[in-house]
Design goal:
The protein is built from 8 helices and 8 strands, in the order αααβββαβαββαβαβα. By secondary structure, it is of the alpha/beta class. Bound molecules: zinc ion.
């Protein structure tokens, strides 16, 4: 009896230690990966400024063209993909930039594809580069308004606003082909082509921002979903923009969201989360991480929120251009900060 009691006490003690260790590990994980600097905006959004209203109109116009006449812009419809590239190219040229094509050939389907690249040379540290990127292809024959005409519209609008205002570091705007399946994470993925070429040239990419779906929001309780386990740590309303990176890009994720929160009255959440968690590496930042650059994805969280994800329903009417404008304006501050040493 005495012996039995001893064993029970011993195992209870072990259980208690194990529970304490797990609790400590969870707190450390939260501290390192989830806790972000600054505070997310709470409460009603302030009235839209004139600049935000005109930005909203501009974003909507780009999305309506890309997801309208240029819907189904994919290597499976090479003419559409090329028309979208030409639209992007002419829009960048119209604001005084000199866009270049980065051509590459893919085997299946056999096609010539291109990324579109435009730089604003840095005034003080031109060899240090901040990449602002978005994929311009859509999945198969879908309109791809949120995914990812919204990200392209944001890049075009940001390039327009930054073109007359060079920063210390070089800004490189890149619109990528072939992010969508079946090209994702293959040699045919435009951002991987670009990241590898950058690495081979020895480009000093100090930060990469992947703008991946910025237009879908919902204030309904329960409208936001998460990969398993993360839902306990984040809000359940899909009313925020997310800053997501892997653990290696933690400093960049934290800097980006800190500057966003200091300058934008808009809810934001962030995480520097192991890339193995589903969704964390689901965009072009993956390519930059793969070759060793730090990168962060800015996203409305895609399939975790948008019911139209990868369907015919991903149309321009389902986007909230006013909230998008608030986000894009905030990203302008983030880019200016990252581009100053
Ligand atoms: Zn997609």
């Amino acid at each position: 009896m005495a012996k039995f009691r001893l064993v029970t006490r011993k195992s209870l003690k072990r259980l208690a230690i194990l529970a304490a260790l797990i609790a400590i590990a969870l707190v450390v994980a939260w501290w390192v990966m989830i806790r972000m600097p600054g505070a997310s905006h709470r409460g009603p959004l302030p009235a839209l400024t004139e600049a935000q209203a005109s930005l909203a109109t501009e974003l909507e116009s780009h999305v309506r063209i890309l997801a309208g006449d240029l819907a189904a812009r994919s290597a499976f419809a090479p003419n559409r993909l090329e028309s979208a590239a030409a639209y992007i190219e002419s829009t960048l040229a119209a604001v005084g930039l000199s866009p270049a094509r980065e051509w590459f050939e893919i085997a299946s389907p056999r096609a010539q594809c291109s990324n579109i690249v435009a730089e604003i040379r840095g005034t003080t540290f031109p060899g240090e580069i901040v990449v602002i990127g978005a994929h311009y292809d859509a999945v198969m024959s879908q309109p791809g308004a949120d995914d990812n005409a919204s990200g392209v519209a944001a890049v075009l609008a940001l390039a327009k606003r930054l073109a007359p205002d060079p920063q210390e570091r070089t800004l490189r705007f890149v619109l990528f082909a072939n992010e969508e399946p079946p090209f994702f994470k293959t040699d045919q993925m435009g951002s991987l082509v670009h990241a590898r070429a950058s690495k081979a040239r020895g480009d000093r990419v100090v930060a990469m921002l992947a703008l991946e779906m910025l237009g879908h929001y919902d204030d309904t309780p329960g409208s936001q979903r998460y990969p398993p386990g993360l839902g306990l740590l984040y809000p359940d309303r899909a009313d925020f923009i997310a800053f997501v990176g892997n653990v290696g890009s933690r400093a960049l994720v934290r800097r980006a969201i800190r500057v966003f929160r200091a300058n934008a009255s808009f809810p934001s959440q962030g995480g520097a989360i192991p890339a193995g968690i589903p969704g964390v590496d689901f965009s072009d930042h993956w390519s930059f991480n793969k070759v060793g650059y730090k990168a962060v994805m800015i996203t409305d969280t895609a399939h975790e929120r948008n019911p139209h994800y990868h369907t015919r329903g991903d149309t321009p009417d389902t986007l909230d251009y006013e909230r998008m404008a608030r986000v894009v304006e905030g990203l302008g501050h983030v880019i200016r900060d990252l581009a100053s040493n």
